[in-house]
Amino acid sequence: MVGRGILGCFILCLSLASVCAVRGTLNSIKDLKGIQFGHTFPRHSLMLLHWLADNIHIDNNNKMRLNFNPTRGDYGFHFYGNRPPSLPILLPGSGSYYSLGNMNSFGSRGLPDYVTQRLYNSRGPESNMDRVVLRVREEESNPFIVDEVYVTQHYRRNENRGSAYDPANTYRVSFNLLTQIQRLICQNEIPRIYNVEINHNSLQELKNIWGHTPGLALLLAIVLSFTLPKVKGGCAQAVETQSDMEDKDNTLIKLELKTTDRGKARIIWSGIPKRLLDQGVMVVLHRNNNSDSKSELDRSSVGGQTSGSYNTSVPLNPGLQVRLHKVTYWWGLWSTIGEEIWRGSEFHDANREIPVDIIRHDASLQLFVKDGKACARLYVKKSFTAWKKTFNNSWVGFYSSHNKSMLNYNTWQWAVSFSMEKRSDLEDVPEYDIYVYNSSMVMSPGVQARFMLQRRSSEAARTLPWERVVLSATRPYQSGNTDEL
Ligand SMILES: *[C@@H]1O[C@H](CO)[C@@H](O)[C@H](O)[C@H]1NC(C)=O
Ligand SMILES: *[C@@H]1O[C@H](CO)[C@@H](O)[C@H](O)[C@H]1NC(C)=O
Ligand SMILES: *[C@@H]1O[C@H](CO)[C@@H](O)[C@H](O)[C@H]1NC(C)=O
Ligand SMILES: *[C@@H]1O[C@H](CO)[C@@H](O)[C@H](O)[C@H]1NC(C)=O
Ligand SMILES: *[C@@H]1O[C@H](CO)[C@@H](O)[C@H](O)[C@H]1NC(C)=O
């Protein structure tokens, strides 16, 4: 008894000591204002918080439910252990930490452009340093419970302090703060309670850039209001340099990739400022964000159009990236590729990035593209050891449209014939084994994969159709259709 008491005390002290390592709790949006945290370009913590608030439900019992599964690596969440130095130590059974925000992780491409975009267009030591950390407990009845949320950051790259998080910039985020952000998502104007006096033009500028993401412009306006110029015209205008203006212009540029009906990459651009069109610009396709500017795959002039599209002959692959370049003319005779101006995010299909659960089994199905072909992944929880036996007669069908009947597939494969995926980052998803199948079917908008438990019945999962806009993008739908013959 005595021994246990001392041990208990020791543990209490340990956890108190580490609680102190956290700087404090952020209880409201106003608290975000007070800390110099993630306020400057290209920091992305405010976008991560907004994204999180938009993808959770907090119920009346203060329980958080997620639209995604952090333990499966969704959106690039990765396992962060249970005793990182900057966070309270977790005792066995009290959960594990999962971290979000590293743009080098495989799943992070599933995050929307508004979170990732700026990280492709900045080179500084502050790039890619912000993280959101969830404390996740798994329970029998519930898939998982999140009871703590933190925002934190790595040390700056030029500080040479390794890859740990910086405790001096680690804060707990209360559910109240997340709820406040959720409320903003349904608002058009800054609610009075924030007592923010923001210049109309400044707000309009934020809305021009972030207006397509509900609530984000308002969140930024409230948090950043003290750093934005209060008066427009006169002095404030004078300090805005030419290059500030150009940077602001550039943030309106949108460079996207979509799928042609032949599995090729289709470049779509919009928001190119007139200043650039007058000089001449082109869109250039690259394998990914790391490929150097000489190794382009395809290119096209934008032909003086603010917005437009170009169908390349390059098979679609995850990671492809469009960059906007100036065109350099040589005595009006020929042109070469000039300075780079802006980069799009690496290719992904966000709605499809999140696997759909196979009903009543610890497994899920994901549709993706590889070399222009439709492919599927099965995520099988390691604890589901009998999966090969259970799925002995199960198969995955590939359909050209969601309204094809069960036997109207283009191609199919047995689930047990999928091969185990080898990827360097899979230790980030320690609870799952991942199996893939490359089909021979050409990817195009509308393609869907479905999981059938038995030869001729029992559909147990269907993915969202490829690139089809769904109204509720963040809520992957599931289907329990039994498509009996
Ligand atoms: C993209 O590449 C640029 C230039 O190499 C780099 O600075 C930036 O951090 C990269 N962004 C991402 C998200 O990988
Ligand atoms: C480009 O691809 C899209 C989608 O497949 C198609 O609708 C469009 O007609 C194509 N444009 C050209 C010029 O081939
Ligand atoms: C399912 O199991 C049976 C024997 O139990 C075997 O003959 C059959 O080949 C298996 N099916 C698949 C798709 O592996
Ligand atoms: C259903 O599929 C057919 C082709 O099989 C297609 O012509 C039709 O547009 C589809 N309907 C919807 C609502 O997508
Ligand atoms: C699928 O295709 C990729 C590249 O095309 C290849 O590296 C991988 O080995 C293939 N996987 C299987 C299971 O055939």
Task: List the SSEs and their pairings.
Layout (H helix, E strand, L loop, with lengths): L1 H20 L2 E3 L2 H6 L10 H10 L1 E3 L5 E3 L11 E2 L16 E5 L12 H4 L13 E8 L7 E9 L17 E3 L1 H11 L14 H11 L5 H9 L9 H6 L2 H9 L3 E6 L4 E7 L3 H6 L1 E6 L9 E6 L6 E8 L5 E10 L3 E10 L6 H4 L2 E2 L5 E8 L2 E9 L5 H4 L4 E5 L11 E4 L4 E2 L11 E11 L5 E5 L6 E4 L23
Parallel strand pairs: 1-8
Antiparallel strand pairs: 2-3, 4-5, 5-6, 6-7, 7-8, 9-10, 10-13, 11-12, 11-14, 14-15, 16-17, 17-18, 18-22, 19-20, 19-23, 21-22, 23-24
This protein binds 2-acetamido-2-deoxy-beta-D-glucopyranose (5 copies).
The site of one 2-acetamido-2-deoxy-beta-D-glucopyranose has 7 residues, from loops.
Structure overview:
Keywords: Signal. Residues 1-21 form the signal peptide. Residues 290-310 are annotated as: Disordered. The protein has 485 residues and is an alpha+beta fold. The chain has 3 domains: 9-183, no CATH class; 246-343, Immunoglobulin-like (Sandwich); 356-468, Immunoglobulin-like, CATH 2.60.40. The protein is built from 12 helices and 24 strands. Helix 6 crosses helix 7 (216-224). It is globular, with a radius of gyration of 24 Å. The chain starts with a helix and ends in a 23-residue tail after the last strand. Mean pLDDT is 83; it is low at 1-20, 230-238 and 471-485. The structure holds 2-acetamido-2-deoxy-beta-D-glucopyranose (NAG) (5 copies). One 2-acetamido-2-deoxy-beta-D-glucopyranose (NAG) binds next to loops.
